[in-house]
Write a structure and sequence with these properties.
Strand order of the largest sheet: 7-1-2-8-9-10-11-12-13
Structural class: alpha/beta
Order of helices and strands: EEEHEEHEEHHEHEHEHHEHEHHE
Radius of gyration: 20 Å
Distance between the termini: 33 Å
Number of domains: 2
CATH topology of the largest domain: TIM Barrel
CATH class of the largest domain: Alpha Beta
CATH architecture of the largest domain: Alpha-Beta Barrel
Shape: globular
Oligomer: single chain
């Protein structure tokens, strides 16, 4: 049994990660590198630094404790971090008293996460909600996730998994034993196109989707990225896929730049600057295509 997991957020009273009021546990680490990722800090498999220059008071404590010499100060530019030299030892975050350098991700015991989830059990009961484990990619910590969902189900909670589907089937099958609903992300059906924006192709994902649909309820989630996967033809094919696997719902998640400021805080390049979110007319047109196929569809959740 895996008793400890690396988590970057636990969000209570979540309304967008499955039915009812839920607590979403965000696991850290992801094999994909989606260019539009709204939580780019979730991609790292270790606790990483997040820098907010606006909070910096120029005290210099971070500079004095950095063993790599990765932090410098100048009168013109203020504090600068050489991200190539930084090894995320986290000493600078420990030294910062102003929340200008913080850490994303912490190791938590299974019991502590479980107890946090149980705090809102009454709300789950009254709203038909429960727990959702998301990421990052939760299947990268499949043993911990399986144990957590098993305990939650034994406590009478509805359990959901939000996944990219990119993991060995053996890991996924073990987690699905304790999963009532899978929120399955579909970025692009074409393997090459999928790889161009995420770093991996979609073949394993599609294989796991078909297998998953044979075991539990599936809710497809599609991030709408202009010029990448938002054509009418592509959405029609996703709708046909949803019909084939008897998806309970399809969610369209319009592109936004929520990940852009986070990338800046991590010294990471944001590759979709200038991308314009899809307009209401376009979204409604794509929504209609899915509805015509006979599937339930929502926008933004």
């Amino acid at each position: 049994m895996k008793h400890e997991g690396l988590i970057f957020n636990i969000q209570r009273f979540s309304l967008h990660d499955g039915p009812g009021i839920r607590t979403t546990v965000f696991m850290k680490g992801c094999p994909l590198n989606c260019q539009w990722c709204s939580n780019p800090e979730s991609q790292y498999f270790f606790p990483n630094l997040m820098v907010r220059d606006i909070n910096c008071q120029g005290c210099g404590k971070c500079l004095s404790v950095c063993p790599r010499g990765a932090i410098t100060f100048t009168a013109v530019k203020g504090r600068q971090i050489d991200w190539a030299a930084c090894d995320h030892c986290l000493k600078c975050a420990d030294a910062c008293a102003y929340q200008s350098i913080t850490v994303s991700g912490r190791y938590m015991k299974l019991e502590d996460v479980y107890n946090e989830v149980l705090k809102d059990k009454i709300y789950y009961k009254n709203s038909a909600g429960g727990i959702t484990v998301s990421g990052g990619e939760p299947l990268c910590q499949s043993e911990f996730v399986a144990c957590l969902l098993q305990q939650c189900r034994q406590a009478g909670l509805h359990t959901a998994l939000d996944t990219t589907g990119h993991a060995p089937w053996e890991r996924m099958r073990e987690v699905l034993k304790y999963t009532d609903l899978v929120l399955f992300d579909i970025k692009h059906l074409d393997p090459g196109q999928h790889k161009s924006k995420t770093g991996v192709d979609s073949r394993l994902i599609m294989e796991n989707l078909i297998k998953t649909a044979g075991l539990t309820r599936v809710w497809l989630r599609v991030p709408l990225i202009p010029g990448f996967n938002d054509s009418e033809a592509h959405i029609k094919n996703i709708a046909l896929l949803g019909v084939r696997i008897q998806a309970v719902k399809v969610s369209l998640l319009p592109y936004h730049e929520g990940g852009k400021p986070k990338c800046a805080q991590m010294g990471k390049e944001y590759n979709l600057t200038g991308t314009v979110p899809p307009g209401e007319e376009q979204i409604n047109k794509l929504k209609s295509i899915i509805e015509i196929a006979g599937l339930k569809v929502s926008v933004g959740s």
